[in-house]
Amino acid sequence: MKTYRALIIGSGAAAYAAALRLDTLGVGDIAILTDRKENGTSRNAGSDKQTYYKLSLCGSVPDSVAEMAQTLFEGGSVHGDVAYAEAAGSVRGFLNLCELGVPFPTNPYGEYVGYKTDHDPRSRGTSAGPLTSRYMTQALEAEAEKRGIPIFDGEKAVRLAVDEAGIHGVITMNREGVITPWAGENVVLATGGPAGIFKNVVYPLGQTGMTGLAIEAGARLQNFAEWQFGIASTKFRWNLSGSYQQVIPRYLVLEEDGSYREFLPDYFDDPADMLLSIFLKGYQWPFAAKHVEGSSRVDMALFDQLSMGKRVFLDYLHNPAALTDLSILPEEAREYLQKSGSTGDTPFDRLMQMNPGAVDLYRSHDIHLDRELLEISLSAQHNNGGVAVDADWQSSIPGLFAAGEAAGTFGAVRPGGSALNSGQVGAIRLAEAIAFKSPRRTPSEEVLADTKADVEELAAEIENAPRSERSLLDAAREIMSDAASALRSDSSLDAAEETITYLLATFPQGFGAKTPAGIIDSLVARDTLLSALALLSAEKLALTTNGSRGSSLYYVGDTPVPENPAYRDKVMETFWNGTGMESCHIPVRPLPAPDNWFEAVWKEYRETRNL
Questions:
Q1: CATH for 508
Q2: pLDDT at 260 over 70
Q3: Are 420 and 132 in contact (CB under 8 A)?
Q4: CB 542 within 8 A of CB 225
Q5: Within this chain, do residues 234 and 356 fall inside the same structural domain, yes or no?
Q6: pTM of the predicted structure, to 2 decimals
Q7: Residue 239: strand pairing partners
Q8: Of 379, 407, 441, the domain-final residue
Q9: Contacts of 218 (CB under 8 A, 6+ apart)
Q10: Residues 356 and 476 in one domain
Q11: Residue 371 and residue 490 in one domain
Q12: Torsional sign, CA 72, 74, 77, 80
């Protein structure tokens, strides 16, 4: 059996970046394993102006690695060494993408211009447009193919082979039913976020994540309860941030008699306050507990209507009834629209004036904002948590690394666009760790054979299990969206945990499948249920400790739970303890204060790399 020095699971921006960094450092025998190369969030997601967050590289405003690290650290529940590494590596990761052809804009003098994004004091954001992460993935993939890095498409990772010594490899299954062991000294989990947990998501179709791989292997998760939720379209999954909100569309609910009605006035006493809140959803797109008296009332109103089983839409054809003239808008919104030259009579007119590409994007998916309503939901967009990693992006299992959204590098809040930076920096860090720090190991063929046998046994059980008349996974996702997304209560979390626990305990009953593709789907469903159970464990602890923060609002009965700021100095870890999921808090690792005396750094660098 061939042994790989590193196996990378996934085919997004973080996966390709990891493969390229390993190749650049001379780490031979690497390979990429992916289920469907064209799937995934990096390639298929975006927003009004998808942001990449990095150290400022323009103008006279001062910035530094330490200042950027402080910004990331101040998000709360963030390990300082990881924040510092993300800041220090941001320029390397960003300029590598520029050299590979990602079209980040420069001014006439070659400066990479920036703008302020959410939770950003320094205008560190930049963008290559709404498809920034797609451009990144395409550029990185092209370079990987140019270098001849092996990419095995159609191989679904379904189990990690581990023992007390660490990782030994991966077991995959393809759509023909072939189950294959892959021996690897190191494995990089770059499978994205656990997008299959919720019904209402803005993750693209085909993105499921496989966080359950890490859970079942015994890896610890970190800050798993911390997510981002926001308003998104459902027919075509896309974030409705930026100009989509700044042009102030009308929010409608479909009533039982077939009529449409504006519903936001039911939740706002002051019409001007309502109009400003809609406008501010452009800047403040993620639902935020700290904005429940401001713009997040829009999200809460939407969630309330959805909880009643209603369908909700944005209308770009007509102004909200309260918007009789732009002159009545609060000053912040009025001046922005005027300076943007976006003063048309309808939201659609204003959107065409401000950002015609936003209209073209939907038109390319056969959705015409000038003649139809846009159905929306409050959707899960990003998991700030994930696999717990150290400053080398290594998990609690020796030899198992995580990168991209699969890694839990963020806490309660994060600057917009920092996730794209984290994926690239994580790739740098883990590649250098594998090349210069990780001990050489010989994967155990016995462990791989035993793990393969376990997968074969489970696949046979699925094949012999009865099918469900109704999709149990869809039902579980609906329960999770109702109970465990942006608004969470003690009673609903208990009920959801009971359901998910039962589905896992009785698996594969109700998840039977006769074809290899169906068996893979059932294995993915099991992975999703494991992730959902871990999430519920984390959320139940957060309800009694962290409280409402970030994109989560907790209730005990009908009473909102306030944030306990003391827990911003702690990180929550979640893990399988052998009988069930367990969550606990550990202290954050502080921000480092490195000794940057050149001669000492140079000496250590030479010794580490055997120069």
A1: 1.20.58.100
A2: yes
A3: yes
A4: yes
A5: yes
A6: 0.95
A7: 232
A8: 379
A9: 162, 396, 397, 575, 576
A10: no
A11: no
A12: positive
pLDDT digits (tens, 9 = 90+) for 57-93: 999 989 999 999 999 999 999 999 999 999 999 999 9
Per-residue burial over 252-282, b if 16 or more Cβ lie within 10 Å, else e, is bbbeeeeeeebbbeebbeebeebbbbbbbbb
Q: Say if CB 239 and CB 381 are below 8 A apart.
A: yes
Amino acid at 240: L
CA distance 140 to 134: 10
DSSP 8-state class, residue 406: G
| Number of structural domains found in the chain | 2
Give yes or no for a contact between 435 and 27, defined as CB atoms under 8 angstroms apart: yes
For the stretch 189-239, pLDDT in tens is 999 999 999 999 999 988 889 999 999 999 999 999 999 999 999 999 999
Cα–Cα distance, 572 to 585 (Å, whole number): 4
What pLDDT score was predicted for residue 48?
82
570-589 per-position pLDDT tens digit = 999 999 999 999 999 999 99
Mean pLDDT of 544-548: 97
State the amino acid at position 429 in one-letter form: R
For residue 347, tell me if it sits in a domain.
yes
Q: What is the DSSP letter of 385?
A: -
Give the tens place of pLDDT for each residue, 583-609. 999 999 999 999 999 999 999 999 999
Same domain, 341 and 239: yes
Q: Which domain holds residue 351?
A: 229-379
Domain assignment present for residue 80? The answer is: no
What span, in angstroms and rounded, lies between the C-alpha atoms of 240 and 302? 13
The pLDDT assigned to 190 comes to: 98
Residues 509, 465 contacting (CB under 8 angstroms): yes
Residue located via tokens 């002159």: 327
Specify whether 356 is located in the same domain as 481. no
What pLDDT, on a 0 to 100 scale, did the predictor assign at position 46?
86
Predicted local distance difference test score (pLDDT) of residue 470: 64
344 within a domain of the structure (yes/no) = yes
Residues 487 and 365 in one domain: no
Q: CB of 529 within 8 A of CB of 476?
A: yes
Provide the b/e sequence for 234-246 (b: ≥16 CB within 10 Å): bebbbbbbbbbbb
Q: Is the pLDDT of residue 418 over 70?
A: yes
The reply to whether 372 and 244 lie within a common domain is yes
Task: Report the C-alpha gap between 99 and 571 in whole angstroms.
Answer: 36
Higher pLDDT residue, 359 or 1? Answer: 359
In a domain, 405, yes or no: no
pLDDT of residue 206: 82
**Exposed e or buried b per residue across 132-152, where buried means at least 16 C-beta atoms within 10 angstroms of its C-beta:** bbbbbbbbbbebbeeeebebe
Residues 340 and 470 both lie in one domain: no
CATH no. for residue 342? 3.90.700
Q: Which of 564, 580, 606 is the last residue of a domain?
A: 564
